[in-house]
Amino acid sequence: MTQQILLGQTLPELRELVKRLDMPSFAAGQIASWLYNKRVTDIDEMTNLSLKHRNLLKAVCQVGATPPQEEMRAADGTVKYLYRTADSHFVEAVYIPDADRATLCVSSQVGCKMNCRFCMTGKQGFTAHLTAGEIINQIHSLPERDRLTNIVFMGMGEPLDNLDEVLKALDILTASYGYGWSPKRITLSTVGLRKGLQRFIESSDCHLAISLHSPVHAQRLSLMPAEGAFPIAEVVDLLRRYDFSKQRRLSFEYIVFKGINDSLPYMKELLRLLRGMDCRVNLIRFHAIPGVDLQGADTENMIQLRDYLTAHGLFTTLRASRGEDIFAACGMLSTARQEEKNNYLA
């Protein structure tokens, strides 16, 4: 019999579990505390549960925490971790230390359906949704977990395409029974799946980042097939219905490709698209990936674009490139390990 995984269960789910096992209702809160506050890896560590109740729990459940299978360390301190899922697939999480901040980039799917031209994960195609437990495990089992200050859902997969499990993970991260993090420490990045986007905005207070990359429909479509179903103009129209002027931050991610979207006409179109919105733009250097004929713009050009947008009232930052010597952009390591597994089984 397959055992139930405790990691990733919300407090209401734990209450249902202890009820089925005829355990006292308060045991649900105790289990949640052991999982998310004390971060145990084994039910036997839950010492304020009676031996009888621990044995009941062990008969049908396991914690489900699994350490990284592999790691790659960059010269700048960035670390890429490879996790194996319950179905023996691979996903990546990237730890990014930076002065007094430490950010973890987590994955939400094995592969991705969006097939963005510039993304290695998209080249894998879609394999599976991660469970809330597999999302949380990337944090729970992180060697540097006690140093984390921020989490970004910018790893493998489209978070809004796996929204039920992502929202469960966000609940655990922010709830008092879970990690108790402020939503302002968490950012979710999406290409802009309309239905999921609206639900996320209304269900969560976490920051939101939109993968934009071009303000021009035809060009964005050539870079991001999702533009065909979810045009950026319609995404922006939806976002204008909500108030981002308080503490919640709305940002737009813009990878700058040399000779593609790095000239003044695109910046003017970007200003027109986002006019009047309370938002910021993050200009990002492109991490080259095999088999893709795109190049990153040079630093001088990116600075000029930033200064132009900022001078015209659109707050713009340059995102520092991290972990280039370990190919920290998501999808590289997991693709290699999955190919090795497939070759072994062939």
Major sheet: arrangement of strands: 3-4-5-6-9-10-11-12-13-14
What class do helices, strands and sheet pairing give? alpha/beta
What is the tally of beta strands?
Answer: 14
Helix count equals 12
DSSP helix fraction: 25-40%
Query: Could you state the CATH homologous superfamily of the largest domain?
Result: Aldolase class I
Main sheet: strands, sense, barrel:
10 strands, mixed
Q: What's the CATH topology name of the largest domain?
A: TIM Barrel
Shape: elongated
- N-to-C order of helices and strands: EHHHEEEEEEHEHEHEHEHHEHEHEH
The CATH C-level name of the largest domain is Alpha Beta
Terminus-to-terminus distance: 29 Å
Q: State which percent range the strand residues make up.
A: 15-25%
**Domain unit count:** 2
- Alpha-carbon Rg, integer: 21 Å
Architecture (CATH level 2) name of the largest domain: Alpha-Beta Barrel
User: What are the segments in which pLDDT stays under 50 over at least 5 consecutive residues?
Assistant: none
